[in-house]
Design brief:
Length: 295
């Protein structure tokens, strides 16, 4: 009988999500952690394996859960193919070294971007971008390689947090601090964001559970959503509370029907998990960090 495991391997461990998973595992203190990364340096309490070294290794990891976070984000199109190929190699190697269970991090972007309700795992896949195609390809590869073992593809909501400068919340907050105004167009686009710390906690909860109970596919996010206008007003209010000077929000005409909402009920029920960090707290932390670092 397979029981829960207390060893995890994290690929892409130097990235935004991977590094927070490492922090969460270290915080718990009872999880043996291996980081597969070319950028992570000198983290006490974990073993770091360079990506090339892991790809050449023949060591078995049958007592470990592998969390695959390695995937290129916010890169030029010419870099995307190389990143996807490296991700494929990592998945193939994890299968070859017989990891005990495998969690592949996918994305909500595999669903239609103009959905009218929160996406469920049973909804049709609609691949509208090269990024979505790459993520879905990783899902298919995971299913094919681990179909006789324990695995799950986790479709993740858009992550937010301190230091993730590419995300729209960070960009708006930075510009608002500098210019004292927030200009948005349309404002009705719906976002489902998840604080990276909640995501890391959820994935570690899953990794140390009994993989016999895993479903093959989960959504992971928050069961709520915010419009761009609501986010802009929240950022303005937060800046006003911390600086005494609330930026003015201006709205111009436009229409954007995109929606990234996710239904996370399956994950919440199976792992007894719920998000603890609301969007308000995430925005406040981002604003405080930007202020501390000169905006």
């Amino acid at each position: 009988m397979i029981v829960s495991m207390k060893k995890i391997i994290v690929s892409g461990a130097g990235g935004f999500l991977g590094s927070h998973i490492i922090k969460e595992a270290l915080r718990r203190g009872d999880i043996e952690t291996i980081a597969v990364s070319n950028s992570l340096e000198g983290v006490e309490g974990i073993r770091i394996i360079r990506t090339g070294e892991f790809l050449k290794s023949d060591q078995s990891y049958s007592d470990a859960v592998f969390i695959n976070c390695l995937f290129p984000t916010f890169v030029r199109e010419e870099e995307l193919a190389a990143g996807i190929e490296m991700g494929k190699e990592i998945i193939q190697k994890a299968a070859a070294v017989s990891v005990g269970a495998f969690i592949n991090i996918s994305s909500q972007s595999v669903y239609s971007s103009v959905r009218t309700k929160s996406a469920k795992e049973t909804d049709e896949v609609t691949l509208e971008s090269a990024y979505a195609k790459g993520k879905y390809e990783s899902e298919v590869l995971t299913e094919n390689l681990f179909n006789k073992g324990y695995y799950s593809n986790v479709r993740l909501a858009s992550l937010i947090g301190v230091g993730y400068e590419q995300r729209i919340i960070n960009r708006i907050a930075k510009k608002a601090l500098a210019e004292g105004v927030i200009n948005i167009r349309g404002g009705m686009r719906c976002y489902c964001f998840l604080d990276v710390r909640d995501a890391a906690r959820a994935l570690v909860d899953m990794a140390v559970s009994n993989p016999q109970g895993w479903k093959k596919l989960y959504n992971l996010g928050r069961n709520d959503e915010s419009t761009l206008l609501e986010l802009a007003e929240l950022i303005a209010k937060t800046i006003g509370e911390t600086t005494g000077r609330e930026p003015k929000v201006t709205l111009s005409d436009g229409e954007d029907k995109r929606n990234s909402a996710l239904d996370t009920t399956e994950f919440m029920n199976d792992f007894g998990w719920k998000p603890l960090i609301g969007t308000e707290e995430s925005v406040r932390d981002i604003v405080f960090d930007l202020q501390a670092n000169g905006g």
